[in-house]
Amino acid sequence: MAKIKVGVAGYGTIGMRLADGVAAQEDMELVGIADLKPTLSLRALNESGMPYDLYLVDGADKADFDEAGIPVKGTFQDLIDQVDIMLDSSPAGVGAANKEKYYEPNGVKAIFQGGEKNSVADVFFHGYANYEKGVGKDYLKLTSCNTTGLIRSVDALDKDWGIDKVAITIIRRFADPGDYHRGLTNALKMDKAPTHQAVDLMTIMPHIDATGILVHTPVTHGHIITVVATGKQKITREMALESFKKHPRIRVVRIEDGFLGNASLFKYGRDLGHKRGDMYEIAIWEDSIVESGDDIMFAINIPQEAVTIPETMDGIRAAMKMQMTSEEGTAETNKYLNIGGFKKFEK
Amino acid sequence: MAKIKVGVAGYGTIGMRLADGVAAQEDMELVGIADLKPTLSLRALNESGMPYDLYLVDGADKADFDEAGIPVKGTFQDLIDQVDIMLDSSPAGVGAANKEKYYEPNGVKAIFQGGEKNSVADVFFHGYANYEKGVGKDYLKLTSCNTTGLIRSVDALDKDWGIDKVAITIIRRFADPGDYHRGLTNALKMDKAPTHQAVDLMTIMPHIDATGILVHTPVTHGHIITVVATGKQKITREMALESFKKHPRIRVVRIEDGFLGNASLFKYGRDLGHKRGDMYEIAIWEDSIVESGDDIMFAINIPQEAVTIPETMDGIRAAMKMQMTSEEGTAETNKYLNIGGFKKFEK
Amino acid sequence: MAKIKVGVAGYGTIGMRLADGVAAQEDMELVGIADLKPTLSLRALNESGMPYDLYLVDGADKADFDEAGIPVKGTFQDLIDQVDIMLDSSPAGVGAANKEKYYEPNGVKAIFQGGEKNSVADVFFHGYANYEKGVGKDYLKLTSCNTTGLIRSVDALDKDWGIDKVAITIIRRFADPGDYHRGLTNALKMDKAPTHQAVDLMTIMPHIDATGILVHTPVTHGHIITVVATGKQKITREMALESFKKHPRIRVVRIEDGFLGNASLFKYGRDLGHKRGDMYEIAIWEDSIVESGDDIMFAINIPQEAVTIPETMDGIRAAMKMQMTSEEGTAETNKYLNIGGFKKFEK
Amino acid sequence: MAKIKVGVAGYGTIGMRLADGVAAQEDMELVGIADLKPTLSLRALNESGMPYDLYLVDGADKADFDEAGIPVKGTFQDLIDQVDIMLDSSPAGVGAANKEKYYEPNGVKAIFQGGEKNSVADVFFHGYANYEKGVGKDYLKLTSCNTTGLIRSVDALDKDWGIDKVAITIIRRFADPGDYHRGLTNALKMDKAPTHQAVDLMTIMPHIDATGILVHTPVTHGHIITVVATGKQKITREMALESFKKHPRIRVVRIEDGFLGNASLFKYGRDLGHKRGDMYEIAIWEDSIVESGDDIMFAINIPQEAVTIPETMDGIRAAMKMQMTSEEGTAETNKYLNIGGFKKFEK
User: Which residues of C touch D259 (CB under 8 A)?
Assistant: First the structure.
C-alpha cells in the first residue's frame, strides 16, 4: 500500500512536533512543511541539516529565507499538490482560510488544531473517545492539549466503569519554554467558569456532565488538572488505578519515585533522550488518587507541547481510513511513536 | 471592664499581624511582643518608632539587639507575668515547649497557630464554625490560613443549606513576599493526597466528608482553592451567591471589575491603604461559581498573611469569655478590624 | 503664600502615588485626579472613602462610573480650570496630546513622566542633577524610574569626586505587583544595547560617558542596577560609601542585616507601615561595593513604583519657582515625604 | 592506541552529561557510572535501555535499585579497578573523600567539578586558558559553569588583544529545570561581592584584575553575564566580534534573529535535536556589544547544565597526555562533540 502523503502548515510548537510525528509513522510520508517567516525553529531545523522540505505560505518573502540561508522548496500550492492530507497548525483563523482557499478546491483533507473554531471541521476528534466518528471524514478538528489529556483519563474510567459527571480544576502553565510573546509574573489568573475544556469534553462525550474552573500559573512545564469524577457506580481507588495503568498513553507515577511535579516529568522526558525531551503520555499521580464519598478524585499532568501528536496521528488514520477502529488506529500510532513501551519498566 | 492583656510570641509574618490586630481591639491591650533575633521585621518596627515593647525569648542575645539599636524591655518571663493570654506564633514545636515551660506554670492561656500539633490545645478552633467549643478553654489552636478561609466559605453554605461533602483543589502560593528561605522556580509541586486542610476541616466540621489535592505554585500573593461541594439539597448558583454575599469576611468579586487573580487582590489591599496592604477577607469570584450536576463549584482567594488574624481575635474572645457566642464574638472582632465595611460599596 | 494647586492626569501606578505625594506637601493642594475608566485602583480609592475628587478625561463614559458607584466631580477641563500645574502620568503619547489641547491653551504648566518623548518638555529633569534648569520652566519631563535612581547614585559620586564614565547593567523587574497586561515566565530577556537609561543619563549629565545593557527578569519587586564608574580620580570603597551614606534619598543596606535582595526591601517598606509599602529611597548594598582597578562598582535597588515621586515634587517646586535651588527644593520635598528620617536609626 | 578508560562518579545534572560526553569521544571508553540512590535520572536511564553500567558507591543499598528494577553491575571499587581516570561529579566534599579512599590508593587520576575545594587538585583547569598546566597531572579541578563560559570569552579577547581588567555582573539562574530542592520565587537575591567567579578567573588568568557582582534570578534556563573589559589597547566592537566569531565554543547570536534571551537558546538547543536539548557553546549577543570609553562591554549566555562538558573532556586529554597542547586537545574534543559545526550556517 502506498504511503499516505502528509503536509504540515505552520512550523510552531505543535507543527514541528506533528512533522516529527508523521516522519516516524512508517505508513506515512511527510511531504513537507510550510511557514511564513524564518523563525528560530526554522533556523534550528536548518542548522540540523534541513531534514524536511520547506514551502512558503501566502505572504512569505523568500528574500527573508535567503538572507537566513534557509532553502525553500516551493509554494504552499506546490505542497498541497503533493499531499493527501494537511495537518494545519497555523495561527487561529488561518486554518479556516486555508480550508476555503486550498484544501476544498484541491480535494485535500485536513486536520485542524484546537485554535480553530469547531465549525471548521466535520468532527471534533479524539483518538480514543470517538475515533469511529472521524473515519472517512474530510475535516477533523483535534481537541486542545488539556482536553486531549483529560479525555484520555475520563474515557479510561468511562469505558471500564461508566462516568456520569466530572468537575475539573485546570492549573494551567501560561507559556511554553522559550515563549516571549506571552507571560505571567508572580500571579495566578482566573478565567470565567465554566472553562472551555469541560465544554469541549461534553462535545466529544455528550453523555457526561462536565464543568470546571481554570487558573493560569506562571510556569512553562505541563498543566496539572484535578478531576472529581462521579461514576455510574462507586469507583474505588483500586478500580481507577487499574484503568489508568493499562492505558498506553497514561503513565502512573509516584511522588516517592521522584515525580514531584510537572517539572520532574519535563526532566524525565529530557533524560529519556526523547527529541526536545518530549513526552506523549499524560501522567497520573498514584499518590493523588483519593475517594471523595462515592466520587473519585485524581491529578493529571499534561505535557502541553506534545500531548496532541498521537491523537493527530490517529486522526490521519481515521480520516484516511487506514484503520477503521480506535483500537487498531491507536495501536498503530502507538507502535510508531514507541508509546506504551515504558510499561515493562514498571514494578 | 479591664482590658484583656495580650502578648505575642514570635514576630514573624503572622506574629506581626497578630500584634497589629490586638492593638486595634479596643477591649484588649497589647502588652508586648517577644522574639529571638533582630530580624528585618524588628528593624522595620524600630525604624517606625518602636510602638510595641519587645521582650527576648530564651536563647536571645541582647547584644545583637543593642548592635542593631533596637530597645529591649525585658525577658519572656517578664512578658508572661503581665498577660492574661499569649498568642504563640513561634516556629513549629516551640509553642508546645513554651506551653510547658511558661504558660501552664504561670496560669496563662494561649492560642497557637497552625504549625503546632493539634495535641497542644484543648480545641482546634474557628471563629465561625465552632466558636462555642472554645469558650473558657485554656488552650486553642487556630486553623491554618487555607483551612481558615476554606471553612468560612463551607460554613456559610452549611449554615444556610447543609453540606455533606467537599472535594477541594488547593493552588498554593509557595512563599510570602520577601521570603528567601523557601522558593520554587518554574515548577508545580504535588503533595500526597489527601491534603491536610481537608482533614483539618473534618476535625472542625465532623459531619462533612472532605478530601482534596494540593498543588504548590511559584507565586507569593494568595492561595486559590476550588471547592466542589455537595449539599444536603441542590445548592444553586444563586443560593451560593446569597450565602457568600452576606458573610462579613467574604468578598464577592468579579473578573470584569478587574479582579483578575490573586495579584489583583494583593494590589487592591495596597491601594485601599491597609497596613502592609493586608486583607482580612477571603474573596470568592462570582464568575467562578458553577453548578456541577447537583453539586456547586467555586473558587476562593486566601490572603495567606492576614487571613487568620480575625479568627485569632475571635479565639481570644472565646477563651477569655469576652463574648459567649460566635455571633457576638465575631461581630466585635469585625468592628475593630473594620471588616465588612466594604459591603456598602457594592452595587 | 497661597498653596500651589496641582492636578494629576492618569490614576495608574505612578499617578496614584503622585496624588498621595502632592497631598503630603503642605505647601501644595491636590485639586483632583483624572482618569478614563473605573479601574481597580479607582474602586479601591472609592472603597477607602474617595479622598480625592475625580474628573473624567475625554472619552470617559460617566455611566461606567455610576455603575461602579464612583462619584465624579467634573470634566478634565473643570480640573484644568482650577490648577496651576498638572502632573501628567497618562499612557505614553496622551500627555503630548493633553499639552496641545489643554495645557498650552489654558496656560497651565505640566510635568510629564518617562513614557512621553523628550520633545514634549522644555527640560528633561532630575531634582538633584539639574534642578536649576527646571526653575520657572513651563514643561518638564521626569526621568524614568531606573534613570532617576541611577542618577541619584552617580550624581552623589560626581558631586564629591567627579565622574567621567559609567557602564551599567540593569536587571529589570518586568511587571509591577498586580500587573496582568504584561509578564515574563521563566526567562531572561535582552534589550538591544546601549540601554536608554544610559543615554538618558547623558542627556541630564552631558559630561559623563554612559552605556549599558538591560536584562529583563520575571519579578515584580524592584530593579537592580550594577554600576561600574570611572572617577576623575580613583574612588575607593570608603569614598563611595561616604557619598552614599549622606544622601537623603539613598539607603545603604547590608545583606547581613537581612536585606537579601529586592524582595527584602519590598517587605521592609510594608513592615514600615508606609502606604502600599512604598519606598521613596533607592538602596545601595554596602556588601556590593568593590574596587575594580581604579573604577568603583556597586549595586542599587530601584523601587520602581515610587522612586520618581520625590523628584516629581522637586519638579513642581522648580517649575513654580517655590524654591530656586536643588538644595532648597529637595529639602522641602524630603521634609514632607519624611525622607531621610531613617538615617537616625543607623548604627 | 588503546582507548582511555573513564568512569563517572555521581549521575546528577553534570554527571549524566559527562557520561554522554565521554561516550561520544571515540578515543575514550565509558566504563561505567556510579551513584547512591535510584534517582529519577537513573530511572530514566533504565527506561531508555540502560546503556551505561551502573556501580554503587559506599552507602548505597542494592535493594533500593532492585525494587526500582535497575540493574547494578558492581561496587565503586569494581569501577575504579577498570578505569584510567575518574570524572567526579559527586556532591561537594565527597570528591575529596573519594580521592583519599579510592583514587590515590588505586593510582587512578581524577577530574573534579566546581563544588570541590581547589586544594583537592593539582591544577584548577580550563581547556583554552591553561590546558598546558594540566598536561600529565593526576588531579584537575574544572572551573564552574559560569567561570568556564566567562573565561572562554575573556581568553578569546586576551589572546587577540590583551586584557588587563574585567568587571562582571552575573545574572544567575537559580535552579535547573526539574529542581525541587532549591528555588527562588519572585525575588532577586544578592551575593556578597566580589563574586567567586571573578576570583576564580584570576586563579586561571593571574595577569587579569577581575571583580564582580552576582544577582540570583528565579529562572532555570541559562545564566547571563555582562562583562566590562579593559584591554591593553582599546578594543572596538568590531575587534571583539572578530574574536568571538572565530571561537568554536562561542555562538554569536542576534536578537533580531529570534534569540531574545536565555530561554530562546534553551528552545534552540531542543529544536536542534540535541540530547536533552543541551548546548555546549556559550552565546554572545552581537546586539549587546558596546564600547564604554576605551572599554568593551558585552553579554554572554551560559547554558549551565552542559557548558563544562567540553572543558572536562579537554581535561581528560591533558591529564592523560592524549594531546599536549590546548589547540590539539580542544580540537579533538570539538570534533567528537560536534562543536563549531554551526559556523557554516552563519551568513
Answer: 190
